[in-house]
């Protein structure tokens, strides 16, 4: 099927559209935009300068991709927002391009960005993530692969969420969330492993038990963060525990509490 552009859509002649792209009524696509083959752009959606949209992406009605960042330091510099192949951006989501700090914001491949989600400037969302309705992600946040964030949650700027973590809906996320964990309750705290998610993604029972043991040591041994991290590094020979240690080494903020 050839590319189809509705007669009421406004599509710049400078924009680069791949094969089989469909653009619905009243959508707007600006000059410096690249859209991959098989992608659909819904009615009233706005795709702004700097958008780099992959293949087979579905963008629903009134979504805004690569709008100017809500950062007072932003001075119109050339920056980008990347959306990976096969991702879905639901209605009224707002995805803002980067600032001069990183020049980029991005959503990975096979992500589901639900309705009314906001992804601010300089954010990096990994692959296979599900960001539920009305989640608000502030600037400079990094989200690892396979993360699920429940609806209505607020993620503080410069936060880091480790891969395979799951966050309960309605949470205020002001600390870094380590990989593989459930973050829930009020106030938010460590609530065990994301066991169901890990099993669905092929983690073995042995690996899951090792991760449980590792977090038992980290959270409940009575050691401070530095000593607990060193214990993990010395006592566990497991690639997933190694990623926990790497995460703790890289964190520049407080870690999710028990």
Describe what you observe in this structure.
This protein has helices at 195-200, 205-220, 225-235, 239-250, and strands spanning 4-5, 10-11, 16-17, 22-23, 28-29, 34-35, 40-41, 46-47, 51-53, 58-59, 64-67, 80-83, 88-89, 94-96, 104-107, 112-113, 118-119, 124-125, 130-131, 136-137, 142-143, 148-149, 154-155, 160-161, 166-167, 172-173, 181-184, 189-193. With 258 residues, it is of the alpha/beta class. The chain is built from four helices and 28 strands. Helix 2 (205-220) runs antiparallel to helix 3 and helix 3 (225-235) packs antiparallel against helix 4 (239-250). The model has no long low-confidence stretch (mean pLDDT 97). The longest helix is centred in the C-terminal third of the chain and has 16 residues, at 205-220. The chain folds into two domains: 4-158, 3 Solenoid (UDP N-Acetylglucosamine Acyltransferase, domain 1); 198-250, Udp N-acetylglucosamine O-acyltransferase, Domain 2 (Up-down Bundle), CATH 1.20.1180. The strands form three sheets. It has an eleven-stranded mixed beta sheet with strand order 1-4-7-10-13-16-19-22-25-27-28. It has a nine-stranded parallel beta sheet with strand order 2-5-8-11-14-17-20-23-26, with no helix packed on it. The chain has an eight-stranded parallel beta sheet with strand order 3-6-9-12-15-18-21-24, with no helix packed on it. A hairpin with a 4-residue loop joins strand 27 and strand 28 (189-193). It is elongated and about 65 Å long.
Task: Indicate the topology.
Elements (H helix, E strand, L loop, with lengths): L3 E2 L4 E2 L4 E2 L4 E2 L4 E2 L4 E2 L4 E2 L4 E2 L3 E3 L4 E2 L4 E4 L12 E4 L4 E2 L4 E3 L7 E4 L4 E2 L4 E2 L4 E2 L4 E2 L4 E2 L4 E2 L4 E2 L4 E2 L4 E2 L4 E2 L4 E2 L7 E4 L4 E5 L1 H6 L4 H16 L4 H11 L3 H12 L8
Parallel strand pairs: 1-4, 2-5, 3-6, 4-7, 5-8, 6-9, 7-10, 8-11, 9-12, 10-13, 11-14, 12-15, 13-16, 14-17, 15-18, 16-19, 17-20, 18-21, 19-22, 20-23, 21-24, 22-25, 23-26, 25-27
Antiparallel strand pairs: 27-28
Helix pairs in contact: 2-3, 3-4
């Amino acid at each position: 099927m050839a590319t189809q552009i509705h007669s009421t859509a406004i599509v710049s002649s400078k924009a680069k559209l791949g094969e089989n792209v469909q653009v619905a009524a009243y959508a707007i696509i600006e000059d410096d935009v690249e859209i991959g083959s098989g992608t659909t752009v819904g009615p009233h959606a706005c795709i702004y300068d700097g958008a780099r949209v992959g293949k087979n992406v579905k963008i629903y009605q009134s979504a805004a991709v690569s709008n100017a960042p809500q950062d007072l330091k932003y001075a119109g510099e050339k920056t980008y927002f990347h959306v990976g192949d096969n991702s879905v951006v639901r209605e009224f989501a707002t995805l803002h391009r980067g600032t001069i700090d990183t020049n980029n914001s991005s959503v990975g491949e096979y992500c589901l960005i639900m309705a009314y989600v906001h992804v601010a400037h300089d954010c990096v969302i990994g692959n296979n993530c599900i960001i539920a309705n009305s989640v608000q992600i502030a600037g400079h946040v990094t989200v690892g692969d396979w993360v699920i964030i429940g609806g209505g949650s607020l993620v503080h700027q410069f936060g880091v969420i480790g891969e395979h973590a799951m966050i309960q809906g309605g949470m205020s996320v002001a600390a870094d969330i380590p990989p593989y964990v459930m973050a829930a309750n009020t106030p938010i705290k460590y609530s065990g492993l994301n066991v169901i998610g890990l099993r669905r993604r092929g983690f073995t029972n042995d690996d899951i038990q090792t991760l449980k043991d590792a977090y038992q040591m980290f959270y409940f041994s009575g050691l401070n963060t530095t000593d607990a991290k060193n214990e993990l590094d010395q006592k566990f020979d497991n690639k997933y525990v190694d990623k926990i240690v790497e995460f703790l080494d890289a964190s520049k903020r407080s870690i999710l509490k028990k």
